[in-house]
Amino acid sequence: MDELMQALKNAMKSEIDSVTIYSEAALRAESDVAQFFASRAEEEKRHYNWLLSYYKELLGGQMPTINLAAEIQASQHKSPIFSQDFLTRVASDRHVSAAVSSAVLLELNATQHYQKMADLAEEPHLKAFFRSLSEWEMRHYEELLKIQEDSRHYWFEEQNFEPF
């Protein structure tokens, strides 16, 4: 149980880091790029709140009651289509581009962490909860990786490569 509680704390820290990166990118960006990052920040806030609820319920000796699979299905996430204009705007702002790079790593780490937590959990409900989070974070990872890869071409076109 101590291991699970520590893993939950680590996961909450990771979610807060993600909220911070996405929120900052949303503030720096404009239009649909800002909307994309703002929506990711909101999703990560939901993840944090779910984890916090789980943590508090477990701390109180209760079995957590949230049905994450139902929550995820209710959200009906659809992967956005990233236009050339979207990718160029991501590439043209070094802060936003760096946020994408950082977020790729955070999402991959979260995916692996939640899968490990699912593997460690003995209770089927906990296994399902963490597996669902892992799958959700994998969708984020795949989207951000696509943005990173597809915007790379535009990044080289947009940069002036001048000395600092």
Provide structural commentary.
With 164 residues, the chain is mostly helical. The chain has one domain (2-158): Ferritin (Up-down Bundle). The protein contains 6 helices and no strands. It has helices at 2-28, 31-59, 68-75, 84-92, 94-120, 124-158. Helix 4 (84-92) crosses helix 6. The mean pLDDT is 85. It comes from uncultured spirochete. Residues 7-146 form the Rubrerythrin diiron-binding domain. This is Rubrerythrin diiron-binding domain-containing protein. One of its GO terms (molecular function) is metal ion binding. It holds the Pfam family Rubrerythrin.
Chain-wise SSE layout:
Layout (H helix, E strand, L loop, with lengths): L1 H27 L2 H29 L8 H8 L8 H9 L1 H27 L3 H35 L6
Helix pairs in contact: 1-2, 1-5, 4-6, 5-6
- The number of distinct helices, counting runs of at least 4 residues, comes to 6
Largest sheet: none
Percent of residues in β-strands: under 5%
Query: Remind me, CATH topology?
Result: Ferritin
Number of strands: 0
- Listing every helix as H and every strand as E from the N terminus to the C terminus, the arrangement reads HHHHHH
The CATH architecture is Up-down Bundle
Distance between the termini: 50 Å
Q: Estimate the global geometry from the Cα principal axes.
A: elongated
Structural class: mainly alpha
Q: Give the fraction of residues assigned to helices.
A: over 70%
Query: Average pLDDT, to the nearest integer?
Result: 85
Regions with little confidence, pLDDT below 50 for 5+ residues: none
CATH superfamily label: Ferritin, core subunit, four-helix bundle
| Radius of gyration, CA atoms, in whole angstroms | 17 Å
Number of domains: 1
Task: Look at the structure and give the CATH class.
Answer: Mainly Alpha
Protein name: Rubrerythrin diiron-binding domain-containing protein
InterPro entries: Ferritin-like, Ferritin-like_SF, Rr_diiron-bd_dom
Domain Rubrerythrin diiron-binding: 7-146
GO molecular function, one term: oxidoreductase activity
